[in-house]
Amino acid sequence: MLDSAPLAVCVGEGLVALVPAVAAPLEECRTFHRSLAGAEWNAAIALASAGIRTAVVSRVGDDGFGRFLTGELRRHGVDDSGVEIDPDAPTGLYVKELTPLPVGAVESRMHYYRSGSAAAAMSPSTLARPPASTLLSEAALVHTSGITPALSPGAKAAQDALFADRPAGRLLSFDVNWRPALWRGREDEAKALLADYAGRADAVFCTRPDAEAVFGTADPQRLRDLFPEPRYLVVTCPTGATAFDGAERVQSDALEANVVETVGAGDAFAAGFLAGVLTGLSLSGSLARAHRIATRALASTRDHVD
Fold first, then answer.
1. CA 289 to CA 283: how far, in whole Å?
2. Would you tell me how many other CB atoms lie within 10 Å of the CB of residue 28?
3. Which of residues 107 and 175 earns the better pLDDT score?
């Protein structure tokens, strides 16, 4: 790929996911498969799979899990040079607990072990140090989510810096990704903060349940009225999506797919839409690309496309 191609930079925490080999209570599971996870990292891999030059800015521990994660980025064609190595703090991880559903699908419950992780120590200085600063200065798109500011005050400050430093021509993308467990006891503060980020982004992604929980409505037109500032607003549900580009509105149905698990599909969807925008597709074309890439994340218990 030519270096002159538009660069997308995803900023957020990468996690190792431990996925049991069978759908059963954790106390009955003996074998786990490791996989890359983390909303922005999933999006980065999906963007790269769509032919977009992509990099990640983050932090991992100086441990085997951190080396696994950066190796996975490289294996999928994502630039990992902006990922700092923390000599002391560990790489975060989570364990999936799978419950079988009809027709071969599973339902997931996540158990997180990320407190004090290397990524939680992100700060504005993480963004200011090269090579992260160089990547961000070259970025045509920066993508982040509502998870990052929940990790720590430093990570919130890093997110604030991304929204404050808005070079002309850079598209800032924000996926709401409401995680109430991360905001326990701070829910009202969190909802106001996420609304502020959404109002200042160029592209906003939100599921209907998250929109209802955070903004008080899941109706796409009411959400557009609440957030007229972003050029792109995309509201998703299992049956499809509604997207706005300015005053233009397009609704599309989800594609038929063999659904094994839904975790990570939203990240892939956002990446597909952004890949469409970066390559000059229309609003309907970007939605179509989003649906196609999302189906790939639905086909396994991994959180990212392969």
1. 10
2. 9
3. 175
